[in-house]
Amino acid sequence: MLASKEGRGTELISLYVPPGRQISDVVNMLRQEYGTASNIKSTTTRKNVQDAIVKVQQRLKLFKEPPENGLVIFCGAVPQNGAGSEKIETYVIVPPEPISIYLYRCDSRFHTEHLQELLREKETYGILLIDASAVTFAKLEGRRLEILRQETSGVPGKTRAGGQSARRFERLREMRLQEYFRRVAEHANETFLPIENLKGLLIAGPGPTKYDFEKGDYLNYMLKSKVIDIIDTAYVDEQGVKEVVDKAPEIMRKIRYIEEKEVMQQFLYEVGHDTGLATYGEEEVRKALETGAVKTLLLSEGLDIIRVTAKCSACSHEEQHTLKSQMLTSFEQSLIGKPCPKCKVPALGIAHTEDLIENFAQLAEQANTEVEMISDETEEGQMLKKSFGGIAAILRFKLQNQ
């Protein structure tokens, strides 16, 4: 809702205050911005910006310090019904997770993207870097990287001495290595098993130790089943973790492609075998969602379609239209002078627009339906977009009219 609001000129303020930032510092910054705003040439814009800054300052005074997760304030003159109908609106939000950004922005829109990033589903990947000298445990959650634990092995380096003492040393070293591997596995189980949404485990490190550890029967079977790749790095510390993260996007993209292929193959199977457990097209899928029949909703990331509600200001008649976003202006012009089908008065206008993906995602949430966003970079993704209109569904049960 906030993202859809538009101001007249640059009159909408977005303020992000991270935890730990002094409120007094933020108030002083706003005082300076108030002075800077006095240079704005437009009388209306100057008044609206300064009024919004005062409102933000008033809200900030209610806080001795930012909440644990930080504080976000949106404030500005938002048109209520065309130019000249602006009204100052203020929204104070405590984020669901800690924010790290400190931002003040005066624009024609509210900058909600940093909050939206927090609301995205975050898949967590475990990272285990190991060699014979040390091990590092880390997790990658969304874009957030966290080092969880670091341990040294206590295993001595390889000896160069010859004879029987060298063989005895090697046997003792092997025993210490096995004990080290068992200790690493225990720490891995304690660290990664409690993570509810653990998507996979990446094992990395320099040299062959990582392969010896992975092949051995050390890890809990549930963690072992989540190992998705073994990666070579030059380091085993924090620098090594960053190496893994640099390589991880490509690995995760491949995993996501495999998942997308699997869900699309299931949909194509239901269509090809005429099981009655698949449907596609906007209207068909919408009806299936409304009856609670959809198990998995498949939406193409390439969909650039909006759902427009046109309303008659004379009799309140409403009608929905689906069209490509670039056609919105011409559609709006086509309504000028067009008589309302109900009262025949030419009073039709656009009352509301909504992205079709967002519209279907809301319907899916109400129906407790799983949503799969399918990229159009795979053959199956292209097929969904071109052959099935970018909208398809795998059903829980057959629909009566099928």
Task: Provide a concise account of the structure shown.
The chain has eleven helices and 16 strands. It has 402 residues and is α+β, with helices and mostly antiparallel strands.
Task: Outline the structure in words.
- This protein has 402 residues and is α+β, with helices and mostly antiparallel strands.
- It folds into three domains: 12-119, 2-Layer Sandwich (Translation, Eukaryotic Peptide Chain Release Factor Subunit 1, Chain A); 124-253, Nucleotidyltransferase, domain 5 (2-Layer Sandwich); 278-395, Ribosomal protein L30/S12 (60s Ribosomal Protein L30, Chain: A, 2-Layer Sandwich), CATH 3.30.1330.30.
- Helix content is 38%, strand content 27%.
- The protein has helices spanning 23-37, 43-60, 113-119, 163-192, 209-215, 221-224, 238-272, 282-290, 328-335, 356-366, 379-387; strands at 12-17, 71-79, 86-93, 103-107, 124-130, 134-141, 144-152, 198-205, 227-232, 278-280, 294-300, 305-312, 318-324, 348-355, 370-374, 391-395.
- A five-stranded mixed β-sheet has the order 7-6-5-8-9, with helices on both faces. The protein has a four-stranded antiparallel β-sheet with strand order 3-2-1-4, with helices on one face.
- A hairpin with a 5-residue loop joins β12 (305-312) and β13.
- α1 (23-37) packs antiparallel against α2.
- The longest helix has 35 residues, at 238-272.
- It is flat.
- The two termini are 37 Å apart.
- The model has no long low-confidence stretch (mean pLDDT 87).
